[in-house]
Specification:
Layout (H helix, E strand, L loop, with lengths): L7 E11 L2 E8 L10 E4 L2 E11 L2 E8 L1 H6 L10 E6 L18 E11 L2 E7 L2 H4 L7 E4 L2 E8 L3 E6 L1 H6 L10 E6 L1 H14 L1
Antiparallel strand pairs: 1-2, 1-6, 2-5, 3-4, 3-6, 4-5, 7-8, 7-12, 8-11, 9-10, 9-12, 10-11
């Protein structure tokens, strides 16, 4: 489980792809307590550290990305040298400064607009019929592993604001119109929606 508060933007050092699956080696400077089996949110995707190596200025850890995960996320588009949002999984009793994030990405969404709003930046995204059931104003959403509050929702679009600090410590300062990002809807909304569907039958 995660909170959507990104620890840092790591760097992809190596990618090996074969048979619709992928292994990535990722450098981290700030996450120093990784052990084999640790859960790491990588651009919002919960992945397991399968190997760890200490280097002079941090650690390089390996993760395996399954065919299912590749089909649902943007990880298939990542290349060597790309930066990637990282968050270490929570421990019991840790502060949840964002919201409860599972690291189970629903799909990807395309950035439709980027607007500067004083010091903050507003990002807008396409809203599909599926996501429309789960995105509400002032609700929570995880985008590329970042816990964000939905500002507004229209018929085909929703928007969030990103403050300068978040842009500085994540990959959001690299995002442009037409880029895709990983989205995980609020898990409570997902369960409530399922119960409502049952009641309608």
């Amino acid at each position: 489980m995660f909170s959507g508060i990104v620890n840092e933007a790591g760097i992809i050092k190596d990618i090996f792809s074969e048979n619709h699956q992928q292994k990535m080696s990722i450098f981290t400077k700030n996450i120093t307590d990784i052990v084999i089996g640790s859960s790491i949110s990588c651009a919002g995707v919960c992945l397991t550290a399968t190997d760890i190596n200490k280097v002079s200025d941090g650690f390089i850890f390996d993760v395996y990305v399954s065919p299912e995960t590749l089909s649902k996320t943007t990880l298939k588009t990542y290349r060597n040298g790309f930066r990637i949002n990282l968050e270490r999984s929570l421990c019991m009793g840790d502060e949840i400064a964002g919201h409860m994030v599972q690291g189970h990405v629903d799909t990807t969404v395309k950035i439709t607009k980027v607007i500067q709003d004083y010091e903050s930046t507003r990002f807008y995204f396409e809203l599909s019929d599926y996501l429309d059931n789960f995105i509400v104003p002032k609700g929570s959403v995880s985008l590329d592993g970042t816990s964000l509050t939905v500002n507004e929702v229209s018929e085909r679009e929703f928007g969030v604001s990103i403050i300068p600090y978040t842009k500085d410590v994540t990959t959001w300062n690299e995002k442009c119109i037409n880029d895709f990002v990983n989205i995980e809807v609020d898990m409570y909304a997902r369960y409530i929606r399922k119960q409502l569907i049952k009641l309608e039958k």
